[in-house]
Amino acid sequence: MNEKNAWRLNGFIGVLLIAVFLGLSVFSFYNGSFVPAILLLIVAVILGSGITVIQPNQSVVVIFFGKYLGSIRESGLFLTVPFTLRRTVSLRVRNFNSKRLKVNDVEGNPIEIAAVIVFKVVDSAKAVFDVDNYEEFVEIQSETAIRHVATKYPYDTFEDVELTLRGNAEEVSNELQVELQARLNVAGVEVTEARLTHLAYSTEIASAMLQRQQASAIISARKKIVEGAVGMAQMAIQQLEKDNVIDLDEERRVNMVNNLMVAIVSDKSTQPVINTGSLY
């Protein structure tokens, strides 16, 4: 089913025609011509059944005894085929906020995820005839697409991978929009935007995952500290030997490096020990 234009006439011309037929009917009635008066009245009623008003950003689907005649997208007053059923479809942009869905990511960790879908109808015929209720169809397909995309990637990872739900929200949202558009083409709906609005571990594993993240952050910080401490110790020894401040043998060099490493790497402030020599 594809949308096509329905026959229509300027509504003000239609109203003028109806007024003319009504006037002729009244004139004939007062002149004693009852049959022409009744016929003219019937014609006016028939034309009146074809008058329709269309609001901006709306489309009217015209159905004549079960047959799709077309759609009218222009706003205003129109005269279309009489005795037709006319269904109004909104063409305005709308939002759909999904519920917080509980799914498992690709690693099997339970997570909570939700998204907002921005969509609009671009084909009124498909929206009316190809699906039973296009708004409900959008809701169900959106939740299905969110679940499918969420199960393809890990929530977060401590290894080098290409995509994660938390670290690549933009890419995940774009993939969600593409997949959702493929599902909603049958309903004549265009997905303007799809964005994640909620993403978190489920409550039953949130504390464990938080401890894992904290441990990973501590290890990463310690690694940076050790790398910096080694470089600082090397620079200190090289500078002392370069300026001939002291002459260090291998054992004293090892002791100095050890002291510097302890002082720099320790997470607590170090207490210096001053050697003042022997009192005796």
Automatic annotation (TrEMBL):
Species this protein is from: Pueribacillus theae
Full protein name: Band 7 domain-containing protein
Domain Band: 49-213
One family name in Pfam for this protein: Band_7
InterPro entries: Band_7, Band_7/SPFH_dom_sf
Transmembrane spans: 12-30, 36-54
Keywords: Membrane, Transmembrane, Transmembrane helix
